[in-house]
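Continuing the batch. This is chain 6 of the set; chains 1 through 5 are on the previous pages. Same settings as before, nothing changed between runs. Recording input and output for traceability.
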Amino acid sequence: MDARRLSVEAVVLRSMRYGEADRILHAVTPEHGRVSAIAKGARRPRSKLGGRLEPLSAVRLELQRGRGDLMTVVGADTLVVHHRILTAHAALETAQRAALVVDRVCVPDEPAERVHGLLRTLLALLDEAPDRGGEGMALAFELKLLYALGLQPVLTTCAACGRPDGLAGFDPVAGGVVCSACRRGAPPIGAAAVGFMLEALGRPLAEAPALERPAAGEVERALTGLAAEHLGVDLRRRG
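Output for chain 6:
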């Protein structure tokens, strides 16, 4: 078998137009992390690739390695298309947000089995019950994603001194909640936000707790800070 040829199961994270008829896609795979590939001619009406490379689809990709990081798609078979997600605003927004986060945290040529599996789980849940989409599910996914990457925030004691009470802020540098004495300018965080994170980490994704603002904003800020500080990744939504 040609060592430059890969057959991988993947979830398409995003797909971009390129040139007159091509597409460039990013996908996450269990064995090779994030892959980037060009699908030549995919936008032509008679192309067999075009409809099989839509974002959020689970696919089997046949890839050919080139000299650079960009591979070439030489074949694709659809495994799952999440039709119900595509017709429900909250579910679609949650799924797209998750795909964006995965695209940013995954790197090429590093196994991402847990990340790939977590994303597949989320998409299956949203397709089964689109009304599960929303802030709670999105942030529970991001929290579990960071955990899968080795980042588990300290939530029950001060991350700086170990004190179990008086917790008042979240310090991403320290890696979790901090007491009022150790806060030193760290953003505030309330009991609802901390409780959500504890509950979300302790439950399956299917049982992600609901979350309302302003607690949702506090959780989002905490996770964004953790990712920036410890992974060097910007999770902030733009636009």
